Structure formats: C-alpha cells, structure tokens
Amino acid sequence: MRTDAPKISIDGLSKVFSSRSGTVTALDSVSLRIAPGTFCVVVGPSGCGKTTLLRIVAGLEQQSSGNFHIARQDPRKPLNSMVFQGDSIFPWMTVWDNAAYGLKMRGAGRAEIKDVVSHYLDRTGLRRFADYYPHQLSGGMRQRVSIARAFANDPEVLFMDEPFSALDEQNKVLLQEELLRIWEEHKKTVIFITHSVDEAVTLGDQIVVMTAHPGRIKAIVDIDFPRPRNILELRRDPKFGELVFTIWGYLRAEVDLARKASH
Ligand SMILES: Nc1ncnc2c1ncn2[C@@H]1O[C@H](COP(=O)(O)OP(=O)(O)OP(=O)(O)O)[C@@H](O)[C@H]1O
C-alpha cells in the first residue's frame, strides 16, 4: 500500500570520523525522504560517503548528528537486510542454509522456510545448487545467493552496496534483470549504491547524486520509466541516454574534485 508518509526519512545526517591523524567529515547534513516502495539509487564519486550513509541507516555506524527514521509496518519483520559488494555469504553454509539463515534466526517454521527459500532459489536460478557450498559457485552465483538471502529474510527495507560492481558486464545485466524481477513481486523500499550511472538509471525510481567529499546531496532525479522494465529495450530508449547525460552532468565536476583531492 502506498501512502504519503515516507518509508525512510533522513534529516540533517552528518558523520565525522576522528582518528590520530585528524578528522574526516564523511557526510555533511544529508536530508532525504524515500517513499514506500521506492527503488532509490545513490551515486557519487569515490569517498563521498555513500557507504557511510548506508551503514548509519542500517544501524551499523553511529551518526555524529542528525536523525533518521524507518517507518515500520510489521514489527515481526526484520528492519533491514544488506547485500554488499563481493562475498557476504557464509562460506561454511550451503546455498540453502545461507538463503534460510534470516528465517531460521527469527524462528520461522520449517514449512515457511521451505516455501520461502525454494521460491527465492527458483527466482535466482539456484534451485539445483541448493546443496553447493559458496566455493563451488561463480562470483555471479554467490551474489545471487546474497540476493536470495536478503529477499527471503523479508525485511522492511533492503540496502544494497555496489552488489554487482565486481561482476563482468554480461553477469551484471543478468543479475540486474533478476533483481528487478524479484523486486517487482513486493516492491520493497530499496537503497542501492552504485558507481554506474547506467545501472542507476536502469534500476532506480529516484536517483540521489552526492557531492565529492564531504558528502552532501547535489541533486535528486526522478526516473519515470514504466515498470516492469526490460533492460535492453530501456537502453535503446533515447530518454535513457538523456537521463544518463543529465546525471553525468551533475557528477562530472564532483568526480574531478574528488580526483584532485586525492592527488
Ligand atoms: N571507519 C572510518 N574511519 C575513518 N574514516 C573513514 C571510515 N569510514 C569511512 N571513512 C572516510 O569517510 C569518507 C567516506 O567514505 P565512504 O566509504 O562512505 O565513501 P564511499 O562514497 O562509499 O566511497 P567508495 O565509492 O569509494 O566506496 C572517506 O573519506 C573515508 O576515508
């Protein structure tokens, strides 16, 4: 059900890291509203605070100032699930046990676990690899396990930090397609971080462009391509190119600034 109340509200969020070599302002007064069911994508130059923002909203890091709120619909559901870049599944568990992990942790019944895990292993094409261990899988398959695990956990919101960045182009498009197909089933609110403007326009409803360090919000671009989306057709649409061009326009100066700061 869509309501006007945001699912995620972020108000004046700042983060300063302190160490013996000094302080780093990673985020500077970031405010954002994300409506329920929105696929929100955050892009920005390296080091602009994207991961820090996600880690704070996921409760893994403490902000220095500001607030955020995630509106809960069902207190029995976990608040969030995370999918990271690279390997984030347990190497000592089979594909099935990895996908079932969240459900088992919150005491779901055997029948529910069987139904839900089978569903998401089917959706990610992993059914026949259910008894495999992560080291027996390709990088793309391991990322599929992560996605199956995150969706099977049925969280209120889903956080994804560059989940496809280590994959080759063909695998990336396949996984983007699979992610969109699974996401269409329940339209969970997502925050997805990427370096790829193409990926942002392909997946997102709302694109948040961040400035170079310290991270602030530079622009928010709404993407109104109809859903469900066909990735290859989308890329042929002249509007796709225009949007990529617009977002790159916002990013270009920031990427240059980030480069200069690192030299
Ligand atoms: N634990 C930490 N201690 C000190 N500084 C940190 C810590 N974590 C992040 N930073 C600094 O905060 C800034 C933002 O880092 P963050 O990882 O959030 O950026 P990012 O936009 O996700 O970068 P990338 O796109 O390269 O992954 C960087 O300058 C980084 O060095």
UniProtKB/TrEMBL annotation:
Pfam families under this entry?
Answer: ABC_tran
For this UniProt record, the keywords arranged alphabetically read as follows: ATP-binding, Nucleotide-binding, Transport
Q: Where is the ABC transporter domain?
A: 8-237
| InterPro entries in UniProt | AAA+_ATPase, ABC_transporter-like_ATP-bd, ABC_transporter-like_CS, ABC_transporter_ATP-bind, P-loop_NTPase
Gene Ontology MF: a single term: ATP binding
Q: Which family does it belong to?
A: Belongs to the ABC transporter superfamily.
PANTHER family membership: ALIPHATIC SULFONATES IMPORT ATP-BINDING PROTEIN SSUB, TAURINE IMPORT ATP-BINDING PROTEIN-RELATED
**Name of the protein in question:** ABC transporter ATP-binding protein
Q: State the organism named in the record.
A: Xanthobacter dioxanivorans
